[in-house]
Write a sequence for this structure.
């Protein structure tokens, strides 16, 4: 059989028609989030793209954003790693993207929506990872007089993309992508207790993929640098296989199988799921990482130093750039300056203003 090749590019309308045809034919999941069903953007856009779907445009906007590019020099777990094999916030985002797309492909969900959420999920991270996040929380509580204030990278990521990018005009992303970014993070909470989930199954895929990515990559990195030994790792790791590649593959398969079972239930409200023996083993390993790796030992000492750098630079920015504003407004402006810096740019700022240098 000879297939005719259509030399003209596929239009947005044609891509959306193909989605409908594939869903009707059972070749895509009934849970698939169609781009034409998007709840839309925060503000209307007069110029429509004739070729790309809304989710394709969002993915491209995120990839070309300043916030995404800065992830290259932001901490994942290990501060300022010299070893090129250790994860940064950018390589973590790429790991999440790969895992999430694999799961979405197996479940026949919208891979483009998954990709947009995965690539954008961590753009709100600040210098020095979660220690920087904790220090900014403390500083803002002091300056705002609000003991309940919490700096959260997921919330800030959506804020950056919608209010700081494009010279303050923002990227004007779709509701579904912003929702997925906002809802991806659970911290140490159990995945089974995740009641507030993304509104799309693709967003839930990214949530699980994020946890899988950082748990196993950070475990692999911790073994590589010698923070822990193989004998320290919970025995449950055997359920996933002998090495990082097998760990990831086993976790992907477990989420896919759990989700396929969940999708069989006509009353399910959560088609994407992770449960069973493999899930329990995964939660045990994730708990181990929080108790033995994250912010422990020598890493805790370095993170305390990093928090001191953030505090000094924050107050310097606030006092030298925003002294004309009242305290709360100055704090909010300084927050945006510091939070958008990378590890290296913040340290450069610190050296310039706080480390003496020879003049002659």
């Amino acid at each position: 059989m000879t297939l005719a090749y259509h030399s003209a590019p596929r239009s947005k309308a044609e891509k959306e028609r193909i989605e409908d045809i594939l869903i009707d034919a059972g070749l895509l999941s009934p849970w698939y989030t169609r781009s034409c069903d998007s709840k839309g953007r925060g503000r209307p856009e007069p110029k429509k793209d004739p070729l790309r779907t809304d989710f394709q445009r969002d993915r491209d906007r995120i990839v070309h954003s300043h916030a995404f590019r800065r992830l290259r020099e932001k901490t994942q777990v290990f501060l300022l790693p010299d070893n090129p094999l250790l994860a940064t916030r950018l390589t973590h985002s790429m790991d999440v993207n790969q895992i999430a797309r694999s799961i979405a492909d197996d479940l026949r969900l919208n891979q483009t929506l998954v990709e947009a959420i995965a690539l954008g999920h961590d753009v709100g991270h600040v210098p020095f990872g979660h220690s920087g996040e904790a220090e900014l929380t403390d500083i803002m509580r002091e300056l705002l007089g609000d003991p309940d204030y919490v700096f959260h990278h997921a919330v800030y990521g959506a804020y950056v993309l919608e209010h700081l990018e494009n010279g303050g005009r923002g990227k004007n992303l779709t509701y579904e992508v912003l929702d997925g970014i906002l809802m991806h993070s659970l911290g140490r909470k159990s995945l089974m207790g995740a009641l507030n989930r993304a509104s799309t199954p693709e967003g839930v895929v990214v949530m699980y993929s994020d946890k899988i990515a950082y748990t196993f990559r950070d475990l692999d990195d911790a073994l590589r640098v010698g923070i822990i030994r193989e004998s320290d790792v919970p025995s449950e790791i055997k359920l996933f296989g002998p090495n990082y590649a097998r760990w990831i593959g086993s976790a992907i398969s477990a989420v896919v199988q759990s989700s396929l079972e969940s999708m069989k239930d006509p009353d399910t409200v959560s088609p994407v799921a992770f449960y069973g023996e493999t899930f329990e083993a995964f939660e045990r390993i994730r708990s181990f990482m929080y108790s033995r790796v994250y912010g422990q030992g020598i890493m805790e000492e370095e993170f305390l130093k990093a928090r001191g750098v953030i505090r000094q630079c924050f107050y310097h920015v606030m006092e030298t750039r925003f002294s004309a504003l009242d305290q709360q407004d100055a704090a909010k402006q300084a927050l945006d300056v510091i939070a958008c810096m990378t590890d290296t740019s913040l340290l450069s700022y610190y050296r310039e203003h706080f480390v003496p240098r020879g003049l002659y």
